[in-house]
Write a structure and sequence with these properties.
By secondary structure, the protein is mainly alpha-helical. The protein is 70% helix and 0% strand. It has helices at 7-24, 29-43, 53-69, 75-89, 93-102, 107-113, 119-130, 142-154, 159-167, 170-177.
């Protein structure tokens, strides 16, 4: 004996969930849609309730549109903030773009968010974290330099950027980053 939950009840659950989850942390539209559909499936389990996929999709779209209208979801702003965080964290533009793609940001929005990405600053932050290049000290260990170069290239940076960043002095880097 399975019941069909009312659309109003599903809307109430979805709105409450969206409000709670979006006040706790920032999400993309895609993340919210996925999690909201999963929440509705958990809230109205299969043996007791029959969920119509079209009704669930309509409820999720309606709540997503409501969240966008209240500026609780802003994929373009999320993309900009993640790109700024990527520079500070020492992540390459390529890795940051892949991260945005995994979060469900479409290519055009990601491209706009990454438009002002400072790859040299990201590379310098990477070198600072790894204590490589100019941050290695007066007599850098060649083995450590080789490992840092490998990590740098695997991180999505180019070899020419390695040469450019490694040629800078610590004072030049501090002036550039400030």
């Amino acid at each position: 004996m399975s019941d069909q939950p009312s659309k109003e009840k599903m809307l109430e659950v979805a709105k409450t969930y969206a409000k709670n989850v979006l006040t706790a942390r920032e999400m993309t539209s895609d993340q919210l849609r996925t999690r909201m559909a999963a929440k509705l499936a958990r809230r109205f389990p299969a043996p007791q309730f029959e969920l119509d996929a079209d009704v669930v999709a309509a409820v999720v779209e309606e709540v997503e549109a409501l969240c966008v209208s209240y500026s609780m979801i802003d994929d373009a702003g999320y993309s900009r903030r993640r790109s700024e965080a990527g520079v500070r964290a020492g992540k390459s533009k390529r890795m940051t773009a892949m991260s945005l793609q995994l979060k469900g940001i479409d290519d055009e929005t990601a491209r706009e968010g990454l438009a002002e990405y400072d790859e040299l600053a990201a590379a310098l932050n990477f070198l600072r974290k790894k204590r490589a290049g100019p941050f290695a000290g007066p007599a850098p260990d060649p083995e450590k330099t080789k490992k840092a170069l490998g990590a740098f290239l695997r991180g999505g940076f180019s070899y020419s950027l390695w040469n450019k960043a490694s040629a800078m002095s610590v004072e030049e880097i501090e002036d550039y980053l400030l």
